[in-house]
């Protein structure tokens, strides 16, 4: 087969092991990126409900691949609220995504990066009114108040695509919630953090009669303050000279530390609501003595840190050999706090007494001075705060208003160390108090440049503070037999050495010959297999190693390898499954363009069973109100049974992000009366309403029994036989195309 080398411009920059990128006359418009894979076996997460633990994917991508890309410097919000340039993300990283909440809104969730790659695209500059400037491809999409919108106008398979316009409101927390990084290096941050953590914990310790650091202080905060105190002692030595301490601090420094240091002028302008709501009754002097003289010894036992660590800095007398008055200075109220000190102070208080509740982040400082100062610093940084009574005596709950948007802004500003107070998962997606960021302009830059994209478990992520669609085709286009993309080039990654690498991995002593599944992510018998012939080597390696395996496909290229499959079945259990969504050829041609017809797939089932192999059929997806009638289901199951299938599994349509928008537009054009009913059926997310799925299962059960298809799906897991395919529709719908 003749091919054309296309050089580096069409290749994917940064792709590991890339050998070359080629086009061929047989596949017009398709680019094959041939790579040397480092591994072939992919472990399925232990939390997955799938009845297998390993997969092999000779190809990455099918007939379409995403070009929704962003400039490499675009900050992506991680699951802990920090940010990282999209170019620096890696598979397995956790980022912040969103999912429907069932009430018409969306909520934040932690989601893994499933894939990461780079390509070259024509660049466009998107400017927002909050100052954000994004460099992106024209096909990229962002979530707006009216749904997903492309960056520029254009055409897709379903018609003219919706796009961003000046004034369009984007969803997300906005620019202020994007962490700039380096908070701890700001002037005064270290002193502010130590002051906030020590004072907040010491004040609470007086209530519980525990010394600092009390058992409330979490290890992340202990590690942070230990590191910062080392820096403070170094700075103090530089200022005072080696071996010279600030003797004037002497016992005052120790007493101040033991009582969390209520020194300095009381800040002005404090809202009276703190005292009114908290019922603060104790005097500072009465609170100061409750900690006792054993603070240092308890601190050492609590933290387990060396004598030069937190315990030493907090409990030891100030003097030359011990770093002088470093800690006394660090816990004192500054007359003129710098922005860095304010950020550090809020981080310390958050780490000591922060909480995350249904309404957002809450700080619960104990003591009048600490509560007033915390409130002042929050308001100094523009946060709206509501003060409420707390259960703990002498404490007040300072509730930060603005939901997750302000919670993320507080994380970006303060950079607390404790993961618990950085977690916004489950919170509602809402606009910042200043309003949603709006589009100012979209400009073509007239150049091509490297861009990056990711696939996440939710189908989206936060890019520069706004919700951005990821490339769903790299992952989720294989869950539906729909053309998941609207603006995709054909980009197929081919692991040309997959059989050789697999054979090496299967030969390891550690390999336990567990079941390997193929076709659950990308179809191993897509059209490209006719060119590259990777599967015979894969089948041979699995059979020779004694590893049971199964294949799920819609590609009739599989019949070429029936002799290899039959030979392997003599050594290990082999299961073969074929995906057949429907038998209505006119409807199938709309929904499955470019795929083998239902008749061709049924003929493949006959050939598989004729070769002596068991073959199950996955009837998926069933389209509610279109292909789910008893007559339609009976017809397809009758055809499947007549072809000799050993069993069948029926699964309702999934509408994952990206596919959902495409399908609903197709539905609106072809069957507009059904749109409201689909919106109700899928109001909770990607899966049909649970009641619908239960009803479908009840209706399908007697049909499966009538046609003799109610047997386990052929998915061998061990050499003892087959196991049943997933019964829950959430667990296993293959792609339609």
TrEMBL record:
UniProt-annotated stretches for the region Disordered: 159-183, 708-737
Keyword Repeat on entry: no
GO BP, sorted A to Z: intein-mediated protein splicing
Compositionally biased tracts (Low complexity): 172-183
Keyword hit for Lipid biosynthesis: no
Example GO molecular function: iron-sulfur cluster binding
Domain Hint: 67-161, 434-476
Gene3D superfamilies hit by this protein: 3.80.30.30, Hedgehog/Intein (Hint) domain
Superkingdom field: Bacteria
InterPro entries: Hint_dom_C, Hint_dom_N, Hint_dom_sf, Intein_C, Intein_N, MJ0683-like
Alphabetic keyword roster: Iron, Iron-sulfur, Metal-binding
UniProt-listed NCBIfam families: rSAM_Rv2578c (NF038135), rSAM_Rv_intein (NF038136)
Protein name as it appears in the record: Intein
Naturally occurring in which organism (per UniProt): Pseudonocardia endophytica
